[in-house]
């Protein structure tokens, strides 16, 4: 059977769903997977995710490939004729591309299994609240636990169809950040009788900017981004409540701890200064993505021998990925797949060049064949 992986990417693009809501996505993936020859496949669903094991011909280990499935709460502005059908939601981080590539590679191995087993993990909720940790705890993962694990992420700033990676640290530690402030609402004309949380939140957002500029060692790196503020009810009512939502990024667990301590000190200052109550919630935390040196060396050697593949050795990035939680358990590595888009990840206009999809399917099929046939350059 012949498949059009770009068309399948477009179908996935039209139905973006948030973390652990990937019901239609799971159904579409299962529908495609069930069209592949089933002789060598075993399938288990887990929440909105899927595990597919390709039984090897003479296995001594299991090589894993992980892809993420969720979209983001962004209103798409690409103007594609296959634009998202889910209002306010978009595949703006390329997980539609990731899934179509995984399907394409799986379709090959369903017909031509390698010597070792392959395990394809379709993981929900990468953007949040984090599907990796509960997936690691799941029954199918424990039963089919891979010995090595690999994954990719699209990269808008690399030429389409090229790859980029490095040994060691690739992506940062992340922590979500939610701060709820509660004061006293009142009439806009009587500020002296109220306790305005819009003003308190504004001060706090400004103070949070000093953590990276004044507290983190300039030779280290961290990010504190506030992506959303909500507060108040209308223009002539003093806000009783405000909420700040953001993310923290760091290159080590130690500096993550320091940033959090500083946030707590600043929030304490706001509570004292504005006589309000504040609650901090760190939401989900992702471990840094640390690429195994030997396996990355092998990947680099494979790239050098693969025809028509350009490999960039990149710097680490402050992006986060809960793939880091898998790599804390299992050796493996992750790489960027160039898709050349004028607009970046999490942009409403992200426009990955689809030519990268068939190229990545061919390349990955080669790489996983090399792995599953015992290749270790
Ligand atoms: C590759 C990528 O964009 N990943 C996300 C991961 C989100 C982590 C978490 N929800 C957070 O916001 O801290 C990223 O934003 O880097």
UniProtKB/TrEMBL annotation:
Q: What GO biological process terms are annotated to this protein in UniProt? A: diaminopimelate biosynthetic process; lysine biosynthetic process via diaminopimelate
Span of domain Peptidase M20 dimerisation: 179-267
Cofactor: binding comment: The Mn(2+) ion enhances activity.
Which GO terms label this protein's molecular function in UniProt? Answer: metal ion binding; N-acetyldiaminopimelate deacetylase activity
List all membrane-crossing ranges. none
Catalytic residues (UniProt): 68, 127 (proton acceptor)
Cofactor(s) demanded: Mn(2+)
| Top EC group | hydrolase
Keyword check for Hydrolase, yes or no: yes
- HAMAP family in the record: DapEL
* Descriptive protein name: N-acetyldiaminopimelate deacetylase
Give the originating organism.
Answer: Lentibacillus salicampi
